Amino acid sequence: MDMPIPDAQAATTGPTRALAEFVAGLDLAQVDDFARHAARRHLIDTLGAMIAGATQDATLSVEKAFAAAGIGAGAVPMAGVRQRYDALSAAYVGGTSGHGLELDDGYRAGSVHPGGVVVPAALALGAQRHADGGTFLTAIVAGYEAACRIAAACHPRSRWRGFHNTGTAGVLAAACAASVLLRHDAEQVESAIGTAASSAAGIFTFLAGGDVKRTHPGHAAREGLLAALLTEAGLPAPRGALEFKDGFFNAYAGDDAGAVDYSRLDILAAGDNHPRSRFAIANCYMKPYAACRHIHAMVDAVLDMATQDGLTADQVKAVEIGSYAVAATHGQVGWSEMTTAQMSIPFVVATAIARGRVTLADFGEAQRGDPAVLALTGRITTGIDAECDEIYPRKRGAKVAVTTTDGRVLERTVMEPFGSASKPLSDAGVAEKFLGLATPRLGEARAEAALEMLWRVDGLADIAPLAEMLAA
């Protein structure tokens, strides 16, 4: 049966307590089949991103920094990683690798990437404590619920204040996932949230360059896990940390000059749901393209023009893109580094037109200097479309008009990009993406064996062998 989520609960107990009671009381048997299958799919998708991201520069920098500091060595495996770490360091490395290639999942209503935080924290602690697969998958569902609902309650106010929800809401999600594995009651979950709130961090300085964005989920995974362990160790913590006047929501999202009363927020209703499930994980998206999700609708549009209208790069005279304000800011992002290139509307859309794809292979140094792509970037302009802005964050839409050299005007409106819960990757597509990302690191036989175990993860007696199989 469905997990009961009373509509009035948050109004009587406050959102922190309502979330804590939900997490403490969650039982996998109460999670509907649709959401449970979504949890397996998102676990597989996230682990693929983590394995592929284990060798990217930001992950290697983290490992070098840990070695220089003399910390981290332990017995806990992490997906895609050769070295074994203590649980906290393993979560940090795994979170960094999962977000490192812009391939991780997300929740549109909260503009947050839950998998890159929740999965490494749960995997590190679950492997260390030899959790069974059912409890592990329950922790994943709980962590996603926390990440998505908290981020949705903040967005887009938090974005305009400069905060990255993956880092800020993510630390609370990791704490909730770890609390499930530690079998915390509601009092303890609320304590873990209270402690984790003081470690929330992450701002949008990455739009100016550098690789710090990659570490945001790593920091959140580690600090959320630490908060749960500190709770286990008896550390006193504040109550009502989400809605308190000096708490999380007021600090990171503001109150719109008193317009928002967070104490009355129904936290478990924040954001939106899939028609077939009330659990947030069932309404998360996966990325078919290795770029910022805000750009995916635009990529869908120009790829459809190529397929349906035969559009080629040499036919493009001008590209005009209208989208919502949050997305439109990416029209001014450059592409001097891989990080910024994956956030740049001109570079990503030009790549889609010139190459007919947007993959990891399209963001290397040589590709960022490709004359065929660069010639198109200057023909692409981005602005705010009133309709797209009005419906955001309910939809992540874009309107694209391409004027060709022979005078045609090709137009597409995409209000929901491919990979969303309403336009999902098939199970075969999820498997293909995982194997494509994991096989180069693990080898074909081990990647296929790991995938087979992941599809039935909730039946495993102990996830530690799975964690070992996923490690390099």
Short key terms for the protein model shown above:
alpha+beta; 2-methylcitrate dehydratase PrpD; 6% strand; disordered N terminus; 2 domains; 472 residues
Sum this structure up briefly.
With 472 residues, the chain is an alpha+beta fold.
Q: CATH superfamily of the largest domain, please?
A: 2-methylcitrate dehydratase PrpD
Count of extended strands: 5
Q: Tell me, what is the CATH class of the largest domain?
A: Mainly Alpha
Lateral arrangement of strands in the main beta sheet: 3-2-4-5
Question: What is the global morphology?
Answer: globular
Largest sheet: 4 strands, mixed
- Tally of individual domains: 2
Q: Number of helix segments?
A: 22
Between the first and last Cα atoms, what is the distance in angstroms?
A: 39 Å
Q: What is the helix/strand order? A: HHHHEHHHHHHHHHEHHHHHEHEEHHH
CATH topology of the largest domain: 2-methylcitrate dehydratase PrpD
Mean pLDDT across residues:
95
Binned strand content: 5-15%
Helix content: 40-55%
Any idea what the radius of gyration is? 21 Å
Low-confidence stretches: 1-11
Given the helix and strand composition, which structural class is it? alpha+beta
Tell me the CATH architecture of the largest domain: Orthogonal Bundle
Protein name: MmgE/PrpD family protein
InterPro entries: MmgE/PrpD_sf, MmgE/PrpD_sf_1, MmgE/PrpD_sf_2, MmgE_PrpD, MmgE_PrpD_C, MmgE_PrpD_N
Family: Belongs to the PrpD family.
GO molecular function, one term: lyase activity
